[in-house]
Amino acid sequence: MTKLITGKTGLMGLIGNPVEHSISPQMHNTMCEIMGIDSVYMPFHVKAGQLGAVVSAFRGLNISGFNVTIPYKTDIIEFLDEISNEAKIIGAVNTVHVSNGRLIGYNTDGQGFISSLGLQGVEIKGKDIVVIGAGGATRAIAYKMAKAEAKKMTILNRSIEKAKIICELIQANSLTEAVFNELRPNNISKYTKDADIIINSTPIGMYPKTNEMPVDNDDMFRNNPCVVDLIYNPIKTEFLKKAEKNGCMTINGLGMLIYQGIRAFEIWNNIQIEENVASVLISKFTQHFGLHEGF
Ligand code: NAP
Q: Where does ligand 1 bind, in terms of residues with CB under 6 Å?
């Protein structure tokens, strides 16, 4: 049924460049329907050089909040009035709450990740974790996993310097043991042999290059770890397929996407969303990506 928009309908949104591929509008508008909230969520493609102008326009509108995606997650910070301690440490904001004309930035990616593992019964506390990749997503999830008392985290990346910086972030904020090295097929099993959880936090294997893997070695899943891929398009990457063939439990990135969105929606609307809403959304979008790989 088409939504009836009235003079009282609220507004939420997404800024980025591009935004056309995003499923956030479907996700948040579905949440509005489920929760009976009279708002709409719109994608806004922000042209290069226009971020400041767009953000100051938002101050004067009846928008309750917006998400921020590539390439503005760090650039947005200078235009905000306040940011959460977590977003400051991570150095990126994916959610902005507009409250009485003030803009407050948060990062809900890390919490989204932890909640998506929690949904599958996977705990972080006391675990030995290997993360492949050292970009923005790794910063967010590594910080949150360190706060959740992971025993050890190994960060493997093509550019070793970025892996080192994330280890320093972990060490400065927790008692988690942090190790880093260059990502190579011939050293991966040295780190994965005792791992409880292995995470692909690179875009390798994402649509349209779905036959690629971040690293490949026949021994890397020997310890029967839980294997996670932050990618959700495709729903099952080559990396997860190989893990599954080796008898591992696997988790894709859809749960993280849904939960970071749920947390943002909660902040903007000052409500708490029940657990079953996440399961409804995950099942809806698993079907969506199953049918429409590439969107
Ligand atoms: P990013 O900041 O651009 O970092 C990308 C990382 O991947 C870097 O460590 C980079 O290594 C590595 N990488 C890229 N291409 C590579 C290649 N050809 N060979 C080896 N390493 C390569 O990206 P991000 O924001 O961290 O995102 C990473 C992934 O997480 C993406 O697939 C993104 O879609 C996904 N993600 C998912 C969610 C979710 O909600 N599910 C949320 C955020 C991100 P270098 O440092 O050497 O360049």
A: 109, 112, 133-138, 157-159, 162, 201-204, 206, 230-232, 253, 256-257, 260
